[in-house]
């Protein structure tokens, strides 16, 4: 090196004359005691301190807050640790998101070498709200001042993206979020931009969207369901401060060892994450990485991420809203279908009820007229059912109704046929597509089948269950009601003729 190191007195003289606030430590002459903390004149004035030779104990009381205008925090928060104390303890500090006494600040740390050893210094100066002036010795082209042209083109880009996101529907939003990340990545010249969303209980986070520059490794697949407890330092910062900025991952302090290892594994050198909020709840963050390159994120970068983050959070929120609306809609439809189904079914037998039968009859009548096919209505009634109930009890009566329903159902199962419980012990059957004579034969063969089954009914003349039936052909002139009345009348006639038969009778039988 060859350069002569200054002694502390020379250094103090220089620092005291500076127009920016400086806090610094001078190594104690006695190696055992702790370094002495000093503040220059500007620092004393800016923070209202008095010079008692060691101002360390006054630092604790300086109340910094995180700039809520810069990061959309729902409430006022203070940084987890005083940036001055952190910097003077040797941590790397570079913050542009803090406020003291209403004054937005840039806080930066550095180490100073002097004859007595190495000390630390923290410089603080007011932050210009519109233009960020890069401070410090790291001249980095990427963090040079934002030109007016940059700002205008970024504004234009943002407004285009937000219009797209606002109007996005369903999957379109996904595509626009992806485009927003790509645009942001290109604009901020970062290597990777991404969105992470937290689980509702903040126990884990998942990388939901990612953009990577050509040649940069994607991490989206292995960053699903990352448990928060694995990255406690990161989680605490993003949750409390709404922002996580690392200019150089190798300078992460020891408490962030897990994070440092993880970022190194992912080959990340610098990163910036800005929290996203929906309805005052933190839902995740939008961020970007620099791979293998140190990067000094500017206030403008943070603002850009905050803006895009807000847009994405809105889009995600409306997507979630849309999805939950869609889900409830589906549930409502399903519940309605189930209710409708219930309203159209007979509770005891599970057959169609009289209402469904009437609706289907109307439909089949118009269809049969359009397509010119025959249609027959048959009405069945269990003979001496009252006596069956009286003899065997109502529960057995119910059982018989169910059994008859099953037998009818398995007999009339051709295409278009419909069996319903009309009322009490009466069942109606719709028989389309076969001529009247054929339909009558199908009814008669059912009565025959029932006789063959010989279901016991001790109180009936023949000792087993029988049914009577009346049928009606639905001709051009008949309405649904006419057809039903005619079938009911014919059923009455079958009863009067001695039961266990169909009316009109089958000729030549
Ligand atoms: N177990 C049971 N009985 C019912 C139900 N609905 C109606 N009933 C009974 O069914 C019987 C119907 O009798 P009707 O069809 O009028 O006369 P019936 O005794 O069968 O004599 P006919 O029809 O003249 O052969 C009545 O006693 C009703 O109480 C039901 O859901 N369960």
From TrEMBL:
GO molecular function: diguanylate cyclase activity
Name of the top EC class for this enzyme: transferase
PROSITE patterns documented for this protein: GGDEF
Residues in GGDEF domain copies: 373-507
Reaction(s) this enzyme catalyzes, per UniProt: 2 GTP = 3',3'-c-di-GMP + 2 diphosphate
Region (Disordered): 489-509
EC number(s) given by UniProt: 2.7.7.65
Pfam families reported for this sequence: GAF (PF01590), GGDEF (PF00990)
InterPro entries in alphabetical order: Diguanylate_Cyclase, GAF, GAF-like_dom_sf, GGDEF_dom, Nucleotide_cyclase, Rev_trsase/Diguanyl_cyclase
PANTHER family from the UniProt entry: DIGUANYLATE CYCLASE DGCM-RELATED, REGULATORY COMPONENTS OF SENSORY TRANSDUCTION SYSTEM
Name this protein carries in UniProt: diguanylate cyclase
Species for this entry: Aliidiomarina halalkaliphila
């Amino acid at each position: 090196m060859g350069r002569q190191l200054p002694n502390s007195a020379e250094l103090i003289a220089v620092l005291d004359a500076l127009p920016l606030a400086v806090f610094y430590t001078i190594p104690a002459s006695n190696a055992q005691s702790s370094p002495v903390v000093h503040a220059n004149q500007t620092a004393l004035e800016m923070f209202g301190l008095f010079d008692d030779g060691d101002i360390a104990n006054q630092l604790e009381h300086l109340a910094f807050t995180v700039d809520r205008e810069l990061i959309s925090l729902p409430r006022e928060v203070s940084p987890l640790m005083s940036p001055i104390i952190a910097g003077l303890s040797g941590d790397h500090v570079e913050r542009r998101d803090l406020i003291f006494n209403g004054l937005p600040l840039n806080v930066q740390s550095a180490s100073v070498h002097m004859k007595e050893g190495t000390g630390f210094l923290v410089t603080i100066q007011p932050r210009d709200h519109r233009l960020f002036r890069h401070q410090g010795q790291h001249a980095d082209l990427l963090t040079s001042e934002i030109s007016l042209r940059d700002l205008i083109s970024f504004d234009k880009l943002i407004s285009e993206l937000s219009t797209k996101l606002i109007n996005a529907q369903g999957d379109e939003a996904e595509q626009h979020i992806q485009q927003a990340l790509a645009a942001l990545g290109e604009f901020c010249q970062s290597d990777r931009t991404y969105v992470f969303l937290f689980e509702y209980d903040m126990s884990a986070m998942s990388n939901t969207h990612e953009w990577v520059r050509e040649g940069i490794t994607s991490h989206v697949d292995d960053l699903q369901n990352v448990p928060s407890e694995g990255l406690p330092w990161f989680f605490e910062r993003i949750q409390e401060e709404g922002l996580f900025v690392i200019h150089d991952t190798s300078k992460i302090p020891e408490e962030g060892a897990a994070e440092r290892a993880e970022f190194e594994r992912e080959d990340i050198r610098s990163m910036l994450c800005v929290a996203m909020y929906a309805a005052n709840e933190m839902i995740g963050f939008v961020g970007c990485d620099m791979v293998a390159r140190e990067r000094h994120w500017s206030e403008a970068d943070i603002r850009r991420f905050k803006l895009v983050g807000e847009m994405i959070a809105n889009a995600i929120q409306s997507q979630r809203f849309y999805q939950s609306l869609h889900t409830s809609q589906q549930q409502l439809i399903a519940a309605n279908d189930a209710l409708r189904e219930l309203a159209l079914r007979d509770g005891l037998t599970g057959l169609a009820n009289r209402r469904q039968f009437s609706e289907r009859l109307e439909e089949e009548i118009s269809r049969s007229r359009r397509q010119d096919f025959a249609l027959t209505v048959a009405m069945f009634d269990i003979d001496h059912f009252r006596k069956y109930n009286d003899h065997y009890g109502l529960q057995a009566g119910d059982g018989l109704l169910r059994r008859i329903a099953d037998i009818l159902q398995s007999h009339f199962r051709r295409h278009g046929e419909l069996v319903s419980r009309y009322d009490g012990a009466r069942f109606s059957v719709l028989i389309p597509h076969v001529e009247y004579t054929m339909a009558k034969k199908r009814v008669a063969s059912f009565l025959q089948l029932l006789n063959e089954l010989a279901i016991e009914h001790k109180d009936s003349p023949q000792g087993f269950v029988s049914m009577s039936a009346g049928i009606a052909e639905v001709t051009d002139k008949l309405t649904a009601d006419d057809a039903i009345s005619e079938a009911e009348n014919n059923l009455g006639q079958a009863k009067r003729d001695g039961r266990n038969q169909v009316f009109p009778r089958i000729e030549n039988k």
